[in-house]
Amino acid sequence: MSGMVEKTGRGLWLTHLGLIVGLAFICFPIYLAFVASTVEQQDIVRPPMPLLPGDKFYENYRDALLSGVNAPVWRMLVNSTVMALGIALGKILISLLSAFAIVYFRFPARKLFFWLIFLTLMLPVEVRIVPTYEVAANFGMLNSYSGLILPLIASATATFLFRQFFMTVPDELAEAARVDGAKPMRFFFDILLPMSRTNIAALFVILFIYGWNQYLWPLLVTTDPSMNTIVMGIKQMFPSGDDLANWPVIMATAILAMIPPVAVVIFMQNLFIKGLIETEK
Amino acid sequence: MEKRVTFKGWTLPLLLVLPQVVVTAVFFFWPAGQAIYQSAFIPDPFGLRTQFVGFGNFIFLLTDPYYLASFRTTAVFSVLVTVVSMATALWLAVMADRIIKGSGTYRTLLIWPYAVAPAVAGVLWLFMFNPNVGLVSWYLDVLGYNWNHVLNGNEAMALVVLASAWGRISYNFLFFLAGLQAIPKSVIEAAAIDGARFWKRFWTIIFPLLSPTTFFLLVVNIVYAFFETFGVIHTITAGGPRQDTTILVYKVYADGFVGQDLGSSAAQSVILLVVVGALTIIQFRYIERRVHY
Q1: B38: distance to nearest CA of chain A, Å?
Q2: Which domains does chain A carry?
Q3: The pTM is what?
Q4: B220: which chain A residues are within 8 Å (Cβ-Cβ)?
Q5: Full domain range(s) for residue B258
Q6: Does a structural domain hold residue B56?
Q7: Total structural domains in chain B?
Q8: Phi/psi at A42 (5° precision)
């Protein structure tokens, strides 16, 4: 029966061919960046550049990591890591606590709080960029990790997700905890938190990538090159005016900027897909 | 939806929501309020005082040819990014769905560009199409086409669309593949028995059954093109040449930070806020309808 709708023989090979062409289109820009990160500047400025990797891999990556252009790239990698982890963990922490409160307690202003969550659901930082910048500047948060992190955890998407999940946790568990005389926080740590493990992990994957890939906000709050994140730092490596860009080092930096989030997607593929589908639907 | 079993007490829950309330109030509601407030003022030339102008900034914007041009640019850009990335992703998903052996491998290979930041995607495409050193622009030159997106507005638009759409294919592919795999095979087999060829089956059965996924992706991709492509624009064209790739989000940044025109930038933020709000309502409406089916 399956032969009716699944391709065999020539059709199957054409399907594979089509997929491979698509893959080539998708992977080519990254492959070319990798090649550029392994050759000399001379090979690039006299086009066409080679299509096979050269032998300057070590030199280019060492130059990028240890000296870079404005700041050493290792420094930018550290900044990006702190920022991405801070956003992912910070958002998960405050969201877990507040979702626990709105699901498992009846307290004044609970309804109001819930509607405020809805309001923040889809407003990206790009839209309120100037006033948010002023707030960060007034708090003296420019060129600081708290300035990079805090404004980006100020949305309640994660709270909403945890609320949805907590609603599916059977009431009997809370009932049993209450009968046993367990304090609310005991219930939270011993029962709710372990049950939320996969949800937390899936959300972590999505938030880590979100945080790592931020561009506009770090561009505004980090004027000091040693506080630049790697994703926004690449553009800063291009010279203004007519000077020639140091392409091998820039492309090495671009590859380095891709490795952490790509590794997260590949090695945590199932969590990533779960997180993606749950945060969006 | 309410929980039947709850814990007692007021202070503990208030303490629990406190961190989120503080962060959201300081970095979300206060700035959003400021944007609305500032949109009603213009600063004097020395920046010492501001003058109340009511809806003046909005009226100015909505009659400003540059702002209206930016609206048009954003519309063209969003439609192109959405169509290019969704069509490519659908094509790949349909093929991956037809393969039993090895479709997992293709999935792994196709999803990882999701993790590439828009700004990094911008740098990669800029490198390929750089008028002086780019490989693609060099080959275009060999073919007799002189590519220069620094001067040519249409080429600049094509390049930012390609870079933005490229970064989005993985995402759309995942959702399309999930949608395709949810279609019962028996329906398709029945059509095959009736003698319907693949493309006929695709347009009459598969595509209509996929429409919830398609509609969802349409909204999400438009939101992406509106707001999350700032990095692509900033790295590749910086809004140029002239204003040809200045999308609305880029204009908020350019007017607010480069041009220091805070009143206008705030008014633009408010307009974007309304746009996002409208898109959110469309999305929620749609999800609700799907739930109640």
Answers
A1: 9
A2: 69-280 (1.10.3720.10)
A3: 0.89
A4: 280
A5: 66-292
A6: no
A7: 1
A8: -60, -40
How many angstroms separate the CA atoms of B46 and A103, rounded? 52
Query: Distance (Å) from the C-alpha of residue A211 to the closest C-alpha of chain B?
Result: 10
Q: Confirm whether B59 is domain-assigned.
A: no
Q: A27 vs chain B: nearest CA distance in angstroms?
A: 8
State whether residue A186 sits within 8 Å of chain B by CB. Answer: no
Contact B266, A130 (CB under 8 A): yes
How many other CB atoms are found less than 10 A from the CB of residue B174? Answer: 20
**Of the partner residues B7, B24, B112, the one whose CB lies closest to the CB of residue A154:** B24
Which of A173, A215, A221, A278 to mutate to probe the B interface, most B CBs <10 Å?
A215
Residue B13 resides in a domain: no
- The per-residue pLDDT of chain A, averaged, comes to 86
Residue A189 CB neighbours (<10 A):
12
Contact between chains at B27 and A151 (C-beta distance less than 8 A): yes
Tens digits of per-residue pLDDT, A74-107?
999 999 999 999 999 999 999 999 999 988 888 8
pLDDT in tens, B185-240: 888 788 878 877 778 888 888 888 888 888 888 888 988 898 889 999 999 998 87
The answer to the question of residue B130 being in a domain is yes
Place of tokens 């519309």: B75
